[in-house]
Write a sequence for this structure.
């Protein structure tokens, strides 16, 4: 059938031309599809490790694979390390130790010396440190074409697939869309992504005209009807060597990795709900089908196929480029250098602060106030500032969804699509919440008003968007945009500052009356469940005794105008949203008298004078605003007043610390001017770097705050509170490693990948960003593939990288056996550690006040103190 | 005073060239100075100073361009922070502004022609601000070709005008036409010149089927798109207004303009509905709006065309600069009902009644406004087009809809009044009505209105789905142009990056060298 259409010549008989068994085909497809990590939509853009599908392999092996399959680097270029070396950031000791580690299991004495490594790096600066990536048939075809006089096939087909996918998946941007049958209605022929693509290409004349390839449409019509059949046919047609079908499919899928990541997201979500989604396989089939369409069937000595196969075989057999080994040692050396600095900071703080802290603790057994922040690295700066401003305030770190995985349905909005998932991407939210004033009738009234107001915007939206109205629209309201232009450019001063309404359809006063509330109905936590929840959260937080009069629960949110990737700056644990709802929900839960009573019954006594108050830390301006102060018991006004003052002075310090990084060093000592400048930045529609987000993150510390208190961690560490004494069975530690740690690792690798390969795994230049499908993602420029990852502006300030790509160093304060037990039970985290996706260390108390670290390597604990000689 | 305007921008460009480190300061200084100058002139003109009044059209458009230039320079300074080549950007931005302000303020056709060339060349540099982006090169090259074709048309046209009338000044041409027109049809040379000028404008205003370059210029920083869509592409209408006495006297030229304009307004409008990315949607919208504006010119409705030019500039500049807010807009739409949920029969009934109601309100408002300004008057076909546009407001809610329609009518008449004040005296004299053309155009709008109603009423219907692939492909109009470009006069392309390895060699401190992306044409 298809052979008649695509390959008029008989395939060359040979061992490579045999048919794949169904199992082999399935395995190959799975190996390709499973290697793709999801990418979340723009309105819930959480960080993700883009190599997540490959973490079952060793980090350096993945570096080799990515170089071979996509030409994508996993290390910074040699010049980067050379600079770090010449600045003295990486010492010979670091290099020696890294080299020694890299030779594990081999003869350690054969490890290259630091001198050899420096020489190797110098040589590399002259040569390209990476071999070419594996080619596809389309590349071989393009190599023969005169690309000055004809568009390249690779560009054209990427564009074709990308535009097709956009129209298929778009639900928000276009007003006129193709009919997409709902997935899950069974595998109806003609409804899947592949079947629709095949159908549309068969009727598309555009490519044929542009490329002068009139046969394409007819050939597309003769393609096999299902994705699996197509892939089987493609493998046969390409006559791939035995066992390389999976490799070929991975290479194919990496060519369209933006949309592949989108399809992987759909698959991820479907699987969270217990379903599955075949779009990813369909996309693989589409890109593979293009290889078939471009094959002229000629297998002779001078044919395109022969040229391609020669290249492919050479590439597949080529040994990994030796440069990769050298760079991997340098990468490790840089991580060791950071570990050295981190340990020094921890030791300095420990020796300096221990005495005074102990004295303070002895004098005031309960802190004046406690403040729980998100583990986010931006909180570290603020917590340090708060503790400096108010030494009798205790701060804690906890994942910013505060243990409440919410599915938040705004009041008066029934559309399930509009519900926000306020939970880490790893989990499907279990609790449903909404907004409420506390009175059912009032809620009903507000909901009705909101629905009515939102409904009136529908005809206006039609007027704005329909083509025949556009002309009248411009001639009537166009003049109003003069005011908007002036207002946004700041000419008219502050009165025009127009942020998007926090609660569309509600006035500010109405929105203020609403508080988050657990939705009544199915799956509602009855009191016992609520108590159980509260208990679990407090225990995980390590907050079970010694309650202060005031406990602040602070989520965080970022403010940045005109920024399609704003969600990437929000709280990842809250699904890329601000953390206010979760913080308020927790405070309300813990202030509930019934819950307190239940907790007391379980042996956890919260004193009656303790009040929980919710707040949100604005990470762009370092201000903390408090919620629900109207619920404050009368005696607490003074406490809140004092806390406000502390938060303000902490904000000033934190802003001063951030000023030089934001290019405002001259404002470091002018608090008022700096505050104004940051406010301006947050609402400036031309600002592409409102804040640095989680750039430069490098460590994840699971320990009580006393381990880190006073240490200047430079906003590079996630801090999770953990008290090993209160967790005898290791359940809390297991939870932390399975949840927050993995989220931290995703964030870490998201920044890592966007820095080492800004073209492949970063979303390019913000100046060219072009939002696709309302929320799906961005194109860079006109089109091309969907872009994933962080923008160049998010990791680079124009002169230097603001993120140093280091794998996460995880520091745990727990006994050896407990960590080993948790690792033994958690295959995911164990895999990440063993395959070097992160580095695991634990605190050891040395003699005197010295804090030490030991690292978990190859199943053993080894001391990781700087005094230890690298070669020892 | 106005001839000094381009000089200010040129000075700004020179300063930024001599002191690249202070490029933004010179750019901002020059644009602010120019804006202040035109602003003062505009105030003087409103105040009644005779010296400032002889060219109100020039003052108004110059004010628009100067304001836009100032705002976009301010925006760009922060937006481009950290980019390589900022002085280059400032320089070409100033040069573009100099050329555009020269076109709108000069009274000489030769200056218009030369400034148009310079502006296009400076714009070309802005469009290829990222020279390593192949897509940017191809697009800019396509623009280069259509612009040079347009220049050739202008050159021949001006030669013919010079040969026939012996005068290339705008006033001279108007004078000559005023004397010659009553004596019968113009000589063939002038008729040909008029058609050629119209063709040049069509080429420079990105009308179908030479629209491709405008759609694909998203390869340059956002403010460049804003400048292009709000301050450069609409200059064609100003040129038409300058040579209005000639064009209005040549039916072939008017019909050519109306034909291109009208088919673009309808075609590009339909394509716009299918676009899946925000910037490309905005570009198709510009394309359609330019078509409509040129149609208004062809019909001699210069006051409306001027209103459209100014209002569209403001609207589109804002839309581009705030394109990053597309995500919030989508979220907002998701909160509100996604579509007009009406049964098709009810929708059809309303779609039929709504234009009548809106038309009635428009007409009533016109009568009211006539008490203030007796001269205000629009042909019925213009009212029909406006009424069709206002109709969707009445599709689902009568009362709120009528309130909104009433309010919009006031804005519409107010704008019209302002524009009429500017065109009074010069352009109103030559705007010979052409009833047949007007009704033909109104018919086109009825067709568009009917089609969009079909699409809203039956989004999954056979017609919607059958037409969709064609509209999504942009009617395949750009493919042949791209193909031809590659064949005849290929762009100079950057060396193609090693496939898949584009990111391997990112230079430290450099903006990432782009992997070659996105073929042109296809279905943008």
């Amino acid at each position: 059938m298809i052979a008649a259409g695509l390959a008029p010549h008989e395939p060359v008989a040979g061992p490579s031309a045999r048919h794949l068994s169904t199992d082999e085909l399935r395995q190959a497809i799975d190996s390709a599809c499973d290697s793709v990590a999801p990418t979340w939509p723009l309105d819930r853009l959480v960080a993700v490790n883009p190599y997540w599908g490959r973490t079952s392999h060793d980090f350096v092996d993945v570096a080799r694979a990515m170089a071979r399959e996509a030409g994508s680097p996993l290390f910074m270029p040699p010049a980067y390390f050379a600079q770090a070396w010449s600045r003295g950031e990486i010492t010979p000791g670091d290099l020696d130790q890294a080299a020694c580690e890299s030779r594990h299991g081999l003869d350690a004495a054969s490890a290259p010396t630091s001198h050899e490594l420096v020489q190797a790096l110098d040589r590399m600066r002259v040569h390209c440190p990476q071999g070419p990536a594996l080619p596809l048939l389309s590349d071989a075809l393009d190599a023969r074409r005169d690309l000055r006089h004809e568009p390249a096939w690779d560009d054209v087909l990427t564009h074709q697939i990308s535009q097709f996918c956009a129209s298929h998946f778009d639900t928000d941007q276009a007003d006129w869309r193709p009919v997409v049958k709902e997935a899950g209605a069974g595998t109806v022929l003609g409804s899947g992504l592949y079947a629709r693509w095949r159908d549309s290409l068969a009727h598309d004349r555009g490519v044929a005209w542009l490329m002068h390839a009139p046969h394409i449409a007819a050939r597309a019509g003769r393609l096999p009807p299902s994705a699996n059949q197509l892939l089987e046919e493609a493998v046969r047609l390409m006559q791939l060597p035995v066992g390389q079908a999976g490799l070929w499919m991975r290479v194919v899928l990496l060519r369209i990795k933006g949309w592949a990541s989108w399809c992987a997201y759909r698959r991820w979500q479907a699987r969270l709900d217990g379903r599955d989604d075949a779009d990813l396989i369909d996309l693989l089939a589409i890109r593979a089908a293009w290889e078939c369409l471009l094959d002229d069937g000629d297998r002779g000595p001078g044919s395109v196929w022969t040229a391609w196969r020669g290249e492919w075989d050479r590439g597949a057999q080529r040994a990994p480029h030796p440069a990769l080994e050298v760079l991997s040692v340098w990468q490790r050396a840089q991580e060791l250098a950071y570990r050295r600095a981190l340990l020094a900071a921890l030791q300095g703080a420990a020796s300096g602060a221990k005495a005074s802290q102990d004295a303070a603790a002895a004098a005031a057994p309960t802190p004046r106030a406690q403040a729980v922040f998100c583990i986010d690295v931006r909180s570290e700066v603020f917590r340090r500032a708060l503790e400096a401003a108010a030494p009798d305030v205790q701060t804690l770190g906890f994942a910013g969804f505060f243990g409440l995985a919410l599915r938040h349905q705004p009041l008066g909005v029934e559309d399930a699509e509009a519900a926000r998932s306020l939970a880490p991407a790893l989990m499907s939210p279990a609790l449903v919440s909404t907004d409420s004033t506390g009175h059912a009738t009032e809620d009903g009234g507000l909901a009705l008003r909101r629905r009515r107001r939102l409904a009136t915007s529908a005809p206006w939206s039609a007027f704005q968007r329909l083509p025949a109205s556009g002309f009248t629209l411009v001639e009537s309201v166009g003049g109003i945009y003069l005011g908007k232009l002036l207002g946004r450019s700041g000419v008219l001063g502050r009165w025009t500052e127009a942020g998007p309404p926090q609660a569309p359809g509600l006035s500010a006063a109405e929105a203020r009356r609403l508080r988050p509330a657990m939705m009544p109905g199915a799956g509602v936590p009855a009191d016992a469940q609520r108590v159980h929840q509260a208990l679990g959260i407090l225990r995980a937080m390590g907050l079970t005794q010694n309650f202060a009069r005031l406990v602040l629960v602070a989520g965080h949110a970022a403010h940045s105008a005109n920024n399609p990737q704003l969600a990437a700056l929000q709280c990842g644990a809250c699904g890329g949203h601000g953390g206010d709802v979760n913080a308020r929900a927790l405070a309300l839960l813990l202030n509930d008298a019934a819950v307190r009573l239940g907790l007391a019954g379980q042996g956890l006594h919260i004193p009656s004078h303790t009040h929980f108050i919710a707040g949100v830390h604005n990470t762009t301006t370092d201000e903390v605003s408090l919620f629900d102060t109207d619920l404050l018991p009368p005696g607490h006004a003074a406490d809140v007043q004092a806390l406000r003052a502390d938060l303000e002075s902490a904000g000033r310090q934190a802003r001063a610390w951030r000023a030089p990084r934001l290019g405002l060093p001259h404002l470091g000592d002018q608090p008022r001017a700096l505050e104004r400048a940051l406010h301006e930045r947050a609402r400036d529609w031309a600002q592409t770097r409102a804040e640095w987000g989680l750039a430069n993150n490098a460590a994840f510390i699971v320990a009580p705050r006393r381990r880190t208190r006073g240490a200047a961690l430079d906003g590079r560490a996630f801090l999770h509170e953990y008290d090993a004494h209160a967790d005898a069975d290791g359940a809390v530690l297991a939870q932390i490693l399975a949840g927050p740690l993995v989220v931290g690792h995703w964030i870490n690798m998201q920044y890592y990948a966007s820095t080492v390969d800004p073209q492949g795994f970063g979303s390019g230049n913000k100046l060219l960003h072009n939002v696709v499908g309302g929320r799906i993602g961005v194109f860079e420029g006109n089109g091309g593939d969907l872009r994933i990852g962080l923008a160049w502006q998010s990791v680079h300030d124009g002169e230097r990288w603001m993120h140093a790509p280091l794998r996460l160093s995880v520091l745990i304060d727990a006994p050896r056996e407990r960590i080993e037990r948790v690792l033994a039970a958690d295959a995911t985290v164990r895999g990440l550690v063993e395959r070097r996706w992160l580095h695991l260390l634990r605190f050891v108390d040395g003699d005197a006040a010295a804090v030490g670290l030991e690292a978990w390597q190859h199943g053993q604990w080894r001391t990781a103190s700087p005094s230890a000689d690298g070669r020892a | 005073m106005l001839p000094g305007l381009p000089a200010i921008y040129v000075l700004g460009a020179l300063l930024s060239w001599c002191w690249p480190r202070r490029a933004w300061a010179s750019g901002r200084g020059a644009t602010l100075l120019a804006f202040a100058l035109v602003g003062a002139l505009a105030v003087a003109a409103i105040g009644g100073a005779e010296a400032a009044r002889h060219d109100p059209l020039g003052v108004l458009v110059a004010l628009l361009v100067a304001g836009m230039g100032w705002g976009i320079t301010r925006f760009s300074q922060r937006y481009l922070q950290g980019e390589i080549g900022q002085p280059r950007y400032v320089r070409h931005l100033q040069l573009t502004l100099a050329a555009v302000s020269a076109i709108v303020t000069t009274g000489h056709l030769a200056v218009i022609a030369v400034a148009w060339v310079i502006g296009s060349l400076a714009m070309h540099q802005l469009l290829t601000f990222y020279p390593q982006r192949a897509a940017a090169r191809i697009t800019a090259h396509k623009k280069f070709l259509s612009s040079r074709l347009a220049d050739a048309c202008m050159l021949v046209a001006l030669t013919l005008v010079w040969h026939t009338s012996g005068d290339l000044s705008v006033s001279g041409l108007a004078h000559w036409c005023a004397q010659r027109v009553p004596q019968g049809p113009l000589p063939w040379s002038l008729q040909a010149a008029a058609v050629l000028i119209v063709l040049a404008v069509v080429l420079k205003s990105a009308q179908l089927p030479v629209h491709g370059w405008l759609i694909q210029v998203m390869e340059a920083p956002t403010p460049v798109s804003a400048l292009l869509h709000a301050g450069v592409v609409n200059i064609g209408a100003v040129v038409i207004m300058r040579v209005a006495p000639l064009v209005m006297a040549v039916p072939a030229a008017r019909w050519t303009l109306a034909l291109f304009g009208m088919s673009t307004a309808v075609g590009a409008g339909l394509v716009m509905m299918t676009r899946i990315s925000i910037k490309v949607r905005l570009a198709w919208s510009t394309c359609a709006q330019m078509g409509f504006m040129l149609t208004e010119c062809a019909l001699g409705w210069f006051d409306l065309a001027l209103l459209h030019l100014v209002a569209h500039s403001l609207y589109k500049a804002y839309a581009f600069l705030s394109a990053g807010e597309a995500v919030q807009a989508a979220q907002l739409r998701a909160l509100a009902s996604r579509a007009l949920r009406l049964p098709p029969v009810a929708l059809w009934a309303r779609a039929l009644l709504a234009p009548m109601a809106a038309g009635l309100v428009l007409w009533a408002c016109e009568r009211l406004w006539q008490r203030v300004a007796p001269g205000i008057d629009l042909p019925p076909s213009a009212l029909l087009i406006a009424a069709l546009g206002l109709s969707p407001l009445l599709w689902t809610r009568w009362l709120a809809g009528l309130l909104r329609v009433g309010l919009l009518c006031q804005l519409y008449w107010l704008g019209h009044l302002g524009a009429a004040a500017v065109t009074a005296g010069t352009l109103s004299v030559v705007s010979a009505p052409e009833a047949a053309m007007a009704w033909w155009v109104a018919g086109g709008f009825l067709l568009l209105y009917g089609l969009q109603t079909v699409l809203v009423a039956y989004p999954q219907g056979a017609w919607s789905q059958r037409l969709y692939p064609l509209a999504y492909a942009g009617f395949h109009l750009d493919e042949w142009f791209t193909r031809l470009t590659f064949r005849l006069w290929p762009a100079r392309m950057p060396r193609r990056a090693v496939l898949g390895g584009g990111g391997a060699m990112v230079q430290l401190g450099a903006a990432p060298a782009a992997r070659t992306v996105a073929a042109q044409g296809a279905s943008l």
Notes: The radius of gyration of chain B is 23 Å.
